């Protein structure tokens, strides 16, 4: 497989003028106290389809981070006192504005992150849904009134915003991971400072301007992109005025942030790494299982914490499943995301290519067989072809490490107990996928799988109306659903004597 001649143009399907106008329209500064600040130092944003710079953006330092927190602290009291309906209506206005600009935000995301435009449009719609969902949750924050069991006291509970929050967002879903944190924070009455990933700051900067345009008060949102994450984040997290930390990213970084947050006992929510098993029983509908596998593996070029990382397939159907999956994977078009024909864009950077290559080579040395793909495509940009491996031993590194690329390793099992043991043989517990037509088995296995989410006969579980999050080394807390706003609220109890 190779990148097509048409695909060699990293802007196929999009004019250079369109790209220039879009990039020029995005703020490049830091958002502090409602103003765009450009301190001088900057860093480049790279197009992964070419390996070349798209533009440069302001580079924050520790002082800028604290200045953004100062503004958030100053705005916290008045924002918390804003009527819930008003907060909800502002989020609804942001939803409408983002929905009206799907194509613009999608192209921006594709240019800085690499995913095909069709997928980028899907992410913009997904991101917008968090704004709509939490616009409706803003007016549903409640408490309770009860009689104490002893009868002499009344118990009153209320929920209040936890206070200023700090969000660290990833590069793989640069818009949706922003709205998934910002929307519940704003709905709850919290101000927030955001540090986007250095690879993909443009989506966050454009989103911040959108919030300003719909009337978000100054200081409620700050944005401090930086090339030195630790230098900016550590002083913010150490500041006793900060009350909430939310992070999406690797488990190793998350563990370090949790340790830092312990000093001031911050409320934390962590969406960390995954190692999702994709279990296919002998009675599974293979058409549905293969379709689910394509979604679970190839969504976002495989660069997702929810991506199927290990395919655990019953020995009686493994050969057919592998053949069907190989056929589907080998038929995908690899091209820059701006190409209308693109189904698989570039990985985020050269380090990602190197990691995927190492994992595939390790599996092959351990005895795995490559049925399609298996080598970087080379040339301009960071392209790796869809790859299927069969007979992958459990000792292969890719069965214990996140692949974060378009690689599907397959192994077999014979009994239900063996399948469960293989699926749970990981430190992670974000999501599992399960395919069977036996209802009793589905319930048994779903209860036994050690993960925060289960995809039963489907390859995508993410939904703004559902609680997203994992257990074990995959994190703490939940984002989305009715549970999502609770991450930004504290419960206060008042005992009332009669």
Automatic annotation (TrEMBL):
GO BP = gamma-aminobutyric acid catabolic process
GO-annotated molecular function: succinate-semialdehyde dehydrogenase (NAD+) activity
Query: What CDD domains does the record tag this protein with?
Result: ALDH_F5_SSADH_GabD
Q: What Pfam family is a match for this entry?
A: Aldedh
Give the InterPro entries listed for this entry. Answer: Ald_DH/histidinol_DH (IPR016161), Ald_DH_C (IPR016163), Ald_DH_CS_GLU (IPR029510), Ald_DH_N (IPR016162), Aldehyde_DH_dom (IPR015590), Aldehyde_DH_Superfamily (IPR050740)
Q: Which PROSITE patterns does the UniProt entry name for this protein?
A: ALDEHYDE_DEHYDR_GLU (PS00687)
User: Where does the Aldehyde dehydrogenase domain start and stop, copy by copy?
Assistant: 36-494
Q: Does the keyword tRNA-binding apply?
A: no
Active-site residues, Swiss-Prot/TrEMBL = 271
Q: Which UniProt keywords apply?
A: Oxidoreductase
Asked whether the UniProt record includes Oxidoreductase among its keywords, one would answer yes
Instruction: Name the protein family.
Output: Belongs to the aldehyde dehydrogenase family.
UniProt protein name: NAD-dependent succinate-semialdehyde dehydrogenase
The species is Nakamurella aerolata
């Amino acid at each position: 497989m190779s990148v097509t001649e048409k695909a060699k143009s990293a802007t196929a399907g999009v004019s250079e003028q369109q790209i220039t106008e879009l990039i020029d329209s995005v703020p490049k500064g830091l958002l502090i106290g409602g103003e765009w600040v450009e301190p001088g130092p900057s860093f480049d944003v790279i197009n992964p389809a070419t390996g070349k710079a798209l533009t440069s953006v302001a580079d924050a330092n520790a002082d800028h981070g604290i200045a953004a927190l100062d503004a958030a602290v100053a705005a916290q009291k008045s924002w918390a006192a804003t009527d819930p309906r008003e907060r909800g209506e502002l989020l609804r206005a942001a939803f409408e504005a983002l929905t009206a600009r799907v194509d613009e935000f999608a192209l921006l995301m594709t240019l800085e992150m690499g995913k095909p435009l069709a997928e980028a449009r899907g992410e913009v719609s997904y991101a917008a849904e968090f704004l709509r969902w939490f616009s409706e949750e803003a007016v549903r924050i409640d408490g309770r009134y009860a009689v104490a069991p002893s009868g002499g006291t009344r118990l009153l509970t209320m929920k209040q915003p936890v206070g200023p929050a700090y969000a660290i967002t990833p590069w793989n879903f640069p818009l949706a991971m922003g709205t998934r944190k910002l929307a519940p924070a704003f709905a709850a009455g919290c101000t927030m400072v955001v540090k986007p990933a250095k690879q993909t700051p443009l989506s966050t900067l454009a989103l911040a301007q959108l919030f300003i345009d719909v009337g978000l008060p100054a200081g409620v949102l700050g944005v401090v992109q930086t090339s030195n994450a630790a230098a900016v984040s550590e002083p913010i997290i150490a500041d006793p005025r900060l009350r909430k930390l939310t992070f999406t990213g690797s488990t190793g970084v998350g563990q370090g942030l949790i340790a830092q947050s312990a000093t001031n006992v911050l409320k934390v929510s962590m969406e960390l790494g995954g190692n999702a098993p994709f279990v296919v029983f002998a009675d599974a509908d293979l058409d549905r299982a293969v379709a689910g596998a394509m979604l679970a593996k190839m969504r976002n070029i495989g660069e997702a914490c929810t991506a199927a990382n290990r395919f655990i397939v019953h020995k009686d159907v493994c050969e057919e499943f592998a053949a069907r999956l190989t056929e589907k994977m080998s038929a995908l078009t690899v091209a820059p995301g701006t190409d209308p024909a693109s189904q698989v864009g570039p990985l985020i950077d050269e380090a990602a290519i190197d990691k995927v290559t190492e994992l595939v080579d390790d599996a092959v040395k351990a005895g795995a067989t490559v049925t399609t793909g298996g080598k970087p495509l080379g040339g301009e940009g960071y392209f790796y072809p869809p790859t299927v491996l069969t007979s992958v031993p459990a000792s292969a590194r890719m069965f214990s490490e996140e692949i974060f690329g378009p690689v599907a390793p397959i192994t077999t099992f014979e009994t239900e107990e063996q399948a469960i043991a293989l699926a749970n043989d990981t430190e992670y517990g974000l999501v599992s996928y399960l395919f069977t037509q036996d209802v009793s088995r589905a319930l048994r296995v779903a209860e036994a799988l050690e993960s925060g989410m289960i995809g039963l006969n489907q390859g995508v579980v993410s939904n703004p109306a559902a609680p997203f999050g994992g257990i074990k080394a995959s994190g703490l807390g939940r984002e989305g659903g009715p549970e999502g706003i609770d991450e930004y609220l504290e419960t206060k109890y008042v005992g009332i004597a009669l």
